[in-house]
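Quick log. Single chain, no ligands specified.
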Amino acid sequence: MLSRSAHTGRSLRLLPACPQTPRRYLTTPVPGIPPFTPAHLARLRQSLLPLPDHFLPGSYPPGHTISVSLGSRQPTEAAVLIPLMNIDGVPHVLLEVRAAQMRTHAGEASFPGGRVDSGFIHSSPPPWPQSPYTALSSFPLSQLRPSPSEVSSILPLSLESLLDPERQSLHYFRMDGRKAYYKIWVDDLIPSPQAGPDDTARRIGTDRPERGLSGERKGLKVWGLSGWFLNKLAVRAGWFSLPEHPGDPED
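-> predicted structure:
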């Protein structure tokens, strides 16, 4: 998990949802993507409304073509935060790389979040309202304090990188083989330990990414449920459209 330094005296700006007509706010092709502003996020918030019925408690994600059986187990409550921030005036989505010792999805790129811990103050009724909140911040990366037991590195992903066709690779959501989306390759976007905490220009990696025998790029990627969430946000925001590609699904 990521946390802010206690001494900063700042907090994330939360914009509560309001029922207005959805709009798309970012349709300008790169380069020239403007930084996030409260006005941009207000429009982004509108694009997330109305909430689909599958957001209601006890429902499943859309498009499932397989049955889900939990047996005697109860569903686990979990959530993620998709932080939006400006770094040197450039809009970014902030992710993290999970620590190598994590029990599941070790070393993978993900959003901060996870399951609700037992005894958490907000885990008992009444539940939180099912509303989208957009979080905006412009503080330096040096004020982020990753938990070493859970996070090996922060991962700032600029919108320009997200929209770069060289980083996009066709994939299929494993819970529905008909749902295509883009994996996003981010292996060269982890800030170098030798660079300053706010130096987003120096990266680990090379200008020519390693590729496998199939020609596909190798390395760290945003995929799986995190990739699906990122794609769905990008579609709702109008950043890009989900790919359409017939064929056998890849798992």
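The first helix runs from residue 38 to 47.
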